[in-house]
Amino acid sequence: MAEVTESLVRSALSTVKTPEGVSLAASQALTGVVVTNGKIYLSINVDAQQAKLWEPTRQAAENAVKALEGVTSALVALTAEHKASVAPANPPPSRAAEIPGVKSVIAVASGKGGVGKSTLSMNLSLALSALGLKVGLLDVDIYGPSLPRLAGLHQKPETENDRLMIPPEKFGLQLMSIGFLVEEDTPMIWRGPMVMTAITQMLREVKWGPLDVLVVDMPPGTGDAQLTMAQQVNLAGAVVVSTPQDMALIDARRGVAMFEKVNVPILGVVENMAYFVCPKCGERSDIFGHGGAHAEADKLGVPFLGEIPLHMKIRELSDAGTPVMVAAPESEQAAAYLRVAEGVKAALEKAAGIARPAPRIVMEQ
Ligand code: ADP
Fold first, then answer.
1. Which pLDDT value is given to residue 160?
2. What is the pTM of this model?
């Protein structure tokens, strides 16, 4: 079978006219073309108010692409996201908008997956709540949303007036996850291009609040999704999670650098799986050579928020949908999360007193 290439797709799109009268292939509205093994995904970025006008173009693009030999499926989506290219020198105020009902938004990020970012997001949210704040947790880890599992919640959120989603509440937290909206078996290829649209929707179309803090569990890495977040939301700060291994620290460094580039203050670095306490004898072992993240934070000139031990209980309780902060609030492990939360709360209070300039985003190509 003939292999479909991006240039074949683009030439098919040159026959499709946009409402502006130019070919879709030449239009700036065509923001994404993904071609993988005969599966095609296109995104056409339009003003939300003009979606109806563009529907025939969308349909025509889908038909044109499907007619190509070797195409097994084609999905053409109208998206209404902000452009993530070069921001104007004076971005309009809506660019880094406040989220209605939310006082401060903080991002929990890691340079790579599997370092315990989601576990920290959940327990940090619970710990901030234990410190008296009203807290929401938003899971935008599009590649592996874990909030449904961590909270033992799997229902689709209810909507108000068919538009605003109502975040379900559990453990005193308001919760929202991409996992509530996208089926778990949605193929990866669709997820990538959906990232920005989905994130925008989850930030703007959820009836939060009133909340003191919205904790956002970010997708791992330092790509478009993180930049979109930083562009669209006035982030009060970011918490970067790392394990003590060298490789993870390098990734964490990239995470810190990325937030600094977009003018988001780093509230601090957390070292997860910092040391191991034997559940039988209580002896502590520094399996991965602990302390690296603390030293790295000092080197980068960002605060160190504390360390979380590697402990069986943290994993078991997480998997059971009852986070350690809920199931064992008096435990050593919960105390470790509480210390981190105290640091975050203090950093937030400090940051609130310092006005910062609106972020100016320049993407390096
Ligand atoms: P990420 O969000 O970075 O991909 P997760 O939070 O999903 O990582 O954690 C990955 C795995 O590690 C999960 O099984 C989780 O229960 C476990 N885990 C996270 N932190 C700890 C810890 N401090 N001690 C033991 N297990 C942990």
1. 85
2. 0.73
